[in-house]
Amino acid sequence: MKRYCVLIGGAALLVVACGGWLATCGLLGTCASMASPSRWPFAIALAGGTLLGAMTIAWLTRVVWILAQAARAVRRMQRAPAPAALPIWAARAGALRVECVTAAAPVAFCRGGLRPSILVSVGLVSELSTDELVAVLAHEQHHVRRGDPLRRAMQQAMAEVLFWLPVVHWWADRRREASELAADRAAIHRAGRPPLAAALWKVGSYLETSSAAAFAGAAELRVAQLLGDDLRRQRIPSSLWMGSAAGILIALNAAWCLAHLFGSG
Amino acid sequence: MAQKGLNRALAILGPLEARIMRVIWSGEVGERFVVRDIQQQMSELAYTTIMTTVVRLASKGLLHTRAIAQQKAHEYRVALSPEEFVTRSSREGAAQLVRRYGEAALVAFAARIDGLDPEQRKRLRELGKQ
Fold it and tell me: pLDDT digits over B69-123, tens only?
């Protein structure tokens, strides 16, 4: 949140500085090199292209960075010998690549940008019953099939690069929830509702409150789906629309400023 | 069993921290102790080295610390048993993983259920028991 405020503040300052220059250059006599009106279309296209290109590069860099960070974290995790029955459970869940890692906590992950696979902890294997484990593996296998680690990295990177459009952040959160709900439906199809409910209860109970804050909304929806309740339809709050409109204005201002700079000289 | 718990707890700590906590957890110093008590057990280590490590252990929540009145020294006592420390570390490890990587490139089977309303929690629990 602090970083977000600093970024927004920085962008706003840039626009104010540029706007200030544009407003006062006539008085100071520094406007002589500004673009002539005939060159404005070219200058605007160049400025827009530059901004778009910079954001695309930033987005791709961030995607690679997120995936590399995750890969490094996974490499650090100590591998454990898989229980003899794990391939059988994995086959029941339709999971192809499952590895076991040394961790007392019951955790399961789907990782890998291009070739996703599933990691389960020793704690998860010992804590959950066979049916519950099959439910978790089926859930994660759905993420594998859809390539969700890469999708999420791309969505998160987009939300970060387009930080000035809060609506994109909202959209990324909704996509994450939708993928969790779809994975749960796949798990219900494979293992049934009770094993998934038990697994969700056990794993969820283990996580500390502060750690899993990002999953709060998804938990509510996932449990509602599990219990057969109506899923509430979520609308974009008007504050996000207003924030995004302000962000677009700032971006247009920045592009306009750049266009003047590009058009000059 | 207790030895297994102790070894698991020591494996989580750094080498020097583990040596000091082994002395403390195995009762080679009293229930309440000062840095000097540990140094008597580990005379090969400098006083300042032990003191720095003990302060770090206290900051990690392994030791309780209390200033001794009218002295510069501090008195310490154990805050967590080896088993409690292993449990806490495991939870924190999982929590950290979820916090740092669960949102993006590691798609975790994780959900915060303590934020659910009591009715939903009860129904989820009952469904899981079927």
Answer: 777 788 999 999 998 887 777 666 655 665 555 555 567 777 777 778 888 888 9
Distance CA A26, CA A14 (A): 19
Segments forming the whole domain that contains residue A101? 57-205
Please state the domain count of chain B. Answer: 2
Q: At what angle do helices A166-191 and A148-161 cross, to 10 degrees?
A: 160
Yes or no, beta carbons of A213 and B95 under 8 Å apart: no
Q: Is residue A123 part of a domain?
A: yes
CATH number of A69's domain: 3.30.2010.10
* Cα angle value A247/A253/A258 (rounded, 5°): 125
Domain with B12 in it: 2-81
Q: Is residue A184 part of a domain?
A: yes
pLDDT confidence bin for A209, thresholds 50/70/90: very low
Instruction: List the structure tokens of B99.
Output: 């916090």
A260 touches chain B (CB under 8 A): no
Judge: A103–B94 Cβ closer than 8 Å, yes or no.
yes
Of B87, B111, B123, the CB nearest to A219: B111
Of B92, B97, B106, the CB nearest to A149: B106
Residue A182 touches chain B, beta carbons under 8 Å: no
* Structure confidence at residue A30 (pLDDT): 57
Q: How many domains does chain A have?
A: 1
Whether residue B68 sits in one domain with residue B8: yes
Distance CA A142, CA A151 (A): 13
Q: Which of A106, A115, A56 is nearest to B93 (CA)?
A: A106
Task: Convert the pLDDT of each residue in A18-76 to its tens digit.
Answer: 777 666 666 666 554 555 667 777 777 887 788 888 899 999 999 999 888 888 777 76
pTM for the model stands at 0.70
Task: Check B106 against A212: CB less than 8 A apart.
Answer: no
- ipTM value of the model? 0.73
Residues 6 or more apart whose Cβ sits within 8 Å of residue A35: A43, A259, A260, A262, A263, A264
State the Cα–Cα distance between residues A182 and A85, nearest whole angstrom: 27
Q: What is the pLDDT of residue A50?
A: 81
